[in-house]
Write a sequence for this structure.
């Protein structure tokens, strides 16, 4: 890259990719890893808080509302900085940027997923719960055999949106210095003085990744779809 | 006299300030079919939900096979499993086929093995003449078919009694007949049934007794020919005149 003659954009992209590809792959994998950690943790938190909000006590509902409001009502970057710097200050517990980032994404995604799961759980009409009760099913059996099999199907389309949203939001992890795709791209752009091509290339990676993922989720949705259960939320 | 399956004493129910049931005494013996009629808002559905143990009474006692349901430490879910319930809306589980709907109770509640539960469910579907529709989802069935799946779902539990809450109220007239036919068939087979309905033909043909409810009480009861032809209370007389005249 130290040559005097400027390369055309295509040749430049080819040359920087051949030079930096291990870093680009590392960055992309970190992005994907963080997304999946956030989604998985958020999935558990989201279902539990949705169940708590629909079926729980008043105290549980208040706590859940506070949690959701906090994470939906402040910027992700602020949340990342807050958790990374304040947890060690408050507890004396030292944690690295990666853990702090993953935990914050889980909490953030859980707050959004709670809304989707709540809608899906409430879309399973009360008459079915009454029918389950009349058969002698316990609350647990009703959840497992009646509510969740329907809610988890209904939730796929909105959940796909959360996947996209969180996947793209992982670029905020740059503020913690985590070496995800955006951060790596920034370093390469700084070293090569070619921000246009580098960021264009990074955007293309995000785009392809998200598009392929969406196709996969659409395919899963079609696969598990049941006639008459296409509830729009 | 047969064994009393389900009974209640001084049954009352209040929602907020409103007393919906104001003291009901009732019993039904094994093999009997009893029909409840009465104007809307008279408490018929509430009465049925209480007898199905889907809601607790505010006052009074409910007895299942002689045992005081709410005062003898019985497992309510095990009792509910023995009391079938067919709702006004079919209330089928929408993610399951007809077979899946009927099979779920035997499998999950009665802990039957899968093939055993399936045999049980197919048998129940045959009784309601829906065996060819076993693999269809609720959304692929007509309202009458859905309601018959609901009946099969209750039957497959081998209940001691089945309660029907206006099972044909939301159906078109032709679909009503197919459901009523199945219910008549069950009554003739000796299934114990407590039915809220305004299908007087059904009541006339198979009911051992008709109960007329008004304002939270059973104000008149008797065999169909007697109550339908010669109602004693003015309220029942007026209700029947309107019901028959209005059709």
């Amino acid at each position: 890259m130290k040559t005097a003659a400027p390369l055309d954009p295509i040749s430049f992209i080819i040359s920087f990719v051949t030079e930096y590809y291990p870093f680009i792959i590392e960055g992309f994998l970190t992005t994907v890893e963080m997304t999946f950690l956030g989604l998985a943790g958020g999935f558990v938190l989201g279902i539990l808080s949705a169940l708590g909000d629909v079926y729980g006590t008043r105290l549980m509902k208040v706590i859940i509302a506070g949690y959701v409001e906090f994470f939906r009502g402040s910027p992700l970057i602020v949340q990342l900085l807050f958790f990374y710097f304040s947890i060690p200050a408050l507890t004396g517990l030292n944690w690295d940027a990666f853990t702090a980032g993953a935990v914050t994404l889980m909490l953030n995604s859980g707050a959004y997923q709670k809304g989707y799961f709540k809608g899906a759980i409430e879309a399973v009409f009360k008459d079915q719960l009454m029918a389950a009760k009349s058969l002698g099913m316990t609350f647990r059996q009703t959840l497992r055999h009646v509510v969740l099999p329907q809610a988890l199907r209904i939730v796929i389309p909105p959940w796909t949106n959360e996947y996209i949203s969180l996947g793209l939001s992982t670029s905020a992890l740059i503020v913690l210095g985590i070496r995800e795709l955006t951060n790596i791209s920034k370093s390469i752009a700084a070293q090569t003085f070619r921000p246009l091509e580098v960021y264009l290339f990074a955007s293309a990676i995000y785009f392809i990744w998200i598009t392929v993922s969406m196709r996969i989720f659409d395919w899963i949705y079609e696969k598990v779809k049941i006639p008459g259960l296409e509830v729009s939320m | 006299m047969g064994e009393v399956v389900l009974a209640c004493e001084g049954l009352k129910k209040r929602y907020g300030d409103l007393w919906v049931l104001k003291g009901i005494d009732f019993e039904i013996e094994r093999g009997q079919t009893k029909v409840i009629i009465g104007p809307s808002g008279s408490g018929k559905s509430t009465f049925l939900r209480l007898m199905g143990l889907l809601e607790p009474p505010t006052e009074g006692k409910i007895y299942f096979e002689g045992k005081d349901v709410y005062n003898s430490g019985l497992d309510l879910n095990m009792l509910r499993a023995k009391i079938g319930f067919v709702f006004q809306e079919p209330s089928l589980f929408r993610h399951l086929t007809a077979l899946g709907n009927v099979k779920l109770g035997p499998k999950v509640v009665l802990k039957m093995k899968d093939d055993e539960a399936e045999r049980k469910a197919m048998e129940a579907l045959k009784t309601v003449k829906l065996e060819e529709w076993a693999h269809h989802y609720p959304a692929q069935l007509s309202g009458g078919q859905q309601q018959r799946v609901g009946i099969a779902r209750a039957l497959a539990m081998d209940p001691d009694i089945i309660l029907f809450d206006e099972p044909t109220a939301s159906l078109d007239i032709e679909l009503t007949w197919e459901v009523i036919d199945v219910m008549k068939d069950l009554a003739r087979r000796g299934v114990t049934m407590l039915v809220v309905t305004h299908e007087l033909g059904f009541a006339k043909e198979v009911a051992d007794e008709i109960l007329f409810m008004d304002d939270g009480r059973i104000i008149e009861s008797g065999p169909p020919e007697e109550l339908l032809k010669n109602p004693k209370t003015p309220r029942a007389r007026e209700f029947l005149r309107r019901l028959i005249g209005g059709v």
